[in-house]
Amino acid sequence: MLSTRPADPVGEGRALEALRRWASRYGPHAAKDGTDGLIVDTSGVPHLFGGEADLLEDLSARLERARIESNSAIAETRGAAWALARRGGGVIPEGGLLASLGPMPVSALRIGPEIAEGLTRLGLHRIADLTSVPRAPMARRFGAELLRRLDQALGAQAEPVAAEPDPPQFAVRMTLPEPIGLTADVMGLLDRLLIRLCDKLASAQRGARAVRLELRRVDRSAAVIEVGLARAMRDPARISALFRKGVDEVDAGFGIDGMRLSATVTEPLAPEQIGNGKARQEDELSDLISRIGNRLGFDAVQRFLPASSRIPERSFLTVPAAYAAPEPFPSGRRPRRPVTLFPPEPLAGVSGNPPTRFSWRRMGFTTLRAQGPERITPEWWFDDPTWRSGVRDYWRIETREGPRLWLFRTPQAASGFGDWNAQGVFL
Amino acid sequence: MRILHDRSAVVDGDAFQLLKGRVHEVEGRGRIGFALFQAARSAGPIFWIVLGHDRDRPMPCALPEGVAERMHLVETRNEIDLLWTVEETLRALPVALVIAAPEKPISLTAGRRLQLAAEAGGTTGLMLIHEGRGSNAAETRWSCDPLPGPQDSTRHRWSLNKNKKGTTGTHDVNWNGTTAAVHLVAQAGERHQPEEPPG
User: Fold this and answer.
1) pLDDT tens across B131-166, in order?
2) Which of A20, A104, A250, A312 could serve as a FRET partner for A357 with CA atoms 20 to 30 Å apart?
3) ipTM of the complex, rounded to two decimals
4) pLDDT tens by residue, B12-47
5) Within a domain: residue B3?
6) Are A148 and A178 in a shared domain?
7) Per the structure, how many domains does chain A have?
8) Which residues of chain A lie closer than 8 angstroms to B40, CB-CB?
9) Which of A120-124, A144-148, A337-341, B194-198 has the lowest mean pLDDT?
10) Residue-level pLDDT at B5
11) Taking 60 as the threshold, does the pLDDT of residue B190 lie above it?
12) Across the interface, do B59 and A281 touch by the CB < 8 Å criterion?
């Protein structure tokens, strides 16, 4: 049976990038070459592996173990290595460029198919043929690209491996000679790792939003502790305090002999002047939100933001405090609204319109004074299931028992009259 | 032992000033109004801690001016998380006022822990409790109910039922949430004390 899957260029690119990072073990300059190739500048490296052939063997053995099919070649020039890797692989010994590349077809030169076809039509089938014809007419006919590729393959023109800079990795690790198991020891090492991590963050002007600590036990299992931060920060002492509870709860097993600390989510964080009283207060507040967020979840700590809507439930936004800055609410004249709001609760035993007698939450009330109605129309551009019953007439009812309630009726509802609901309590 | 200086520094003439660094309790149907009154008088971040299934939530658009943007609403899953959150927020220095609505009675141990946390952080705590579910550790206990009043008035009866360091008393006030000050309503002459003997 044939199984098909859609192509995933993003995933493939990520896999190739991971492979590129791994390939830098064969040379400091490792770069991606197209979408399916890697190029490593191995100058001065092969003797560490016992020679060029042994290096290739090591490479293919490791890739095979990872179940990655590969072809590889080593040559003096990048062009020659490219050609050979796609035609069997192996090693071109020093000085043997022309001898090895000569018999190859011209398409091995990293040129476009139309140039290769044109060359074939002229009877220039192999690379060796190109070296013997005059260069000027060739350049006129096929452009400078062909000669550049030929020179690059044969070493007449330099072509460095341009390894892209690694994105900053905010991770530090420590391996211990002897396993440890006490909370105090782990915290001590964590503090040392945090200083290094925060230095890294500071040099990149970034702050961590989530930090992950991996504790590797002697038996190769690992315990992971993750903490979130209410604000981007890179202060070792404050992050360390958040880890204390998690470290306390970890089962050390036969001992911990390795630690890895990484900032999994980071945000830009410019340097700030310290010693400012207001900033310190904000720091303490964000520490508090971090502490609560790490126990209850960061969604549990909410903050209100103003919104422009007449619908009572949508006249404000509730957002996680860790991800939004406070915004002032408009002051001045505003419609009279109850101080507490709850989902509509149907009234029972209603008599009169507006009700003169009703019961709500198992308490009986008699109306003293009624103000209203204030008609609020649903927003047709939102489909809110609770507002499907149409317009609502809101009344402010002062009761003889004391409470001042916000009641509403839905005149358009199918059930007709009598469906009164309470939705809020005034001061 | 540390002596808290501000304990005795109750402002004279301001009956509604809650002692800083202590936890207070308020019960009755008007408890949320009283909590908002205290929120309007405080300066600094306010934490309002509720249980996830509690339906009564403050409505930011109607709160006294300046309260909504300072307020943080914390939703907790259960009673233990709620008490833990209250303790953490009380212990935090920058927080001005912590309002919490527990459902179960607060045990003496829990109440005492909250008092210690409030002392450490210098934060005022206000627990919105159901009738008779308070803790003996509370500094003061208020009972607040809305009262029916004449047209355009928002009357409340705020009575102080328990006070560890002062007198108790009942006040009828008019407070509609626009300012941080209240208008005391003259008591209609119903005597609570026996009449002074003549002469």
Assistant:
1) 888 889 999 999 999 998 888 788 899 999 999 988
2) A312
3) 0.85
4) 457 888 999 999 999 999 999 999 999 999 989 999
5) no
6) no
7) 3
8) none
9) B194-198
10) 45
11) no
12) no
Indicate whether A207 belongs to any domain: yes
Residues 6+ apart with CB under 8 A from B14: none
Select from A329, A343, A403 the Cβ nearest to the Cβ of B60: A329
Q: What is the pLDDT of residue B199?
A: 54
Q: How many domains does chain B have?
A: 1
A307 near B CB under 8 A: no
Question: Does A42 fall in a domain?
Answer: yes
State the amino acid at position A188 in one-letter form: G
Return the HEC string of chain A.
CCCCCCCCHHHHHHHHHHHHHHHHHHCCEEEEECCCEEEEECCCCHHHHCCHHHHHHHHHHHHHHCCCCCCCEECCCHHHHHHHHCCCCEECCCCCHHHHHCCCEHHHHCCCHHHHHHHHHCCCCEHHHHHHCCHHHHHHHHCHHHHHHHHHHHCCCCCCCCCCCCCCCCEEEEEEEEEECCHHHHHHHHHHHHHHHHHHHHHCCEEEEEEEEEEEECCCCEEEEEEEEEEEECCHHHHHHHHHHHHHHCCCCCCEEEEEEEEEEEEECCCCCCCCHHHHHHHHHHHHHHHHHHHHCCCCEEEEEECCCCCHHHCEEEEEHHHCCCCCCCCCCCCCCCCEEEEEEECEEEECCCCCEEEECCEEEEEEEEEEEEEECCCCCCCCHHHCCCCEEEEEEEECCCCEEEEEECCCCCCCCCCEEEEEECC
pLDDT averaged over every residue in chain A: 88
Query: In whole angstroms, what is the distance from residue A374 CA to residue A20 CA?
Result: 67
Task: Indicate the pLDDT class of residue B197, thresholds 50, 70 and 90.
Answer: low
- Is the same domain home to A148 and A230? no
Share of chain A above pLDDT 70, in %: 98
CATH number of the domain where residue B32 is located = 3.40.50.300
User: Residue A96 belongs to a domain with what CATH number?
Assistant: 1.10.150.20
Give the whole-angstrom CA distance, residue B194 versus residue B186.
19
Instruction: List the single best residue of B57, B61, B78 to mutate versus A (max A Cβ within 10 A).
Output: B61
Handedness of CA A284, A287, A293, A294 (dihedral sign): negative
The model's pTM: 0.71
Q: Residue B60 is part of which domain span?
A: 17-184
A312, part of any domain: no
Task: State whether A247 and A183 are in the same domain.
Answer: yes
A63 domain-assigned: yes
Q: Is the Cβ pair B85, A296 closer than 8 Å?
A: yes
Domain that holds residue A257: 171-295
Note whether A183 and A128 are same-domain residues: no
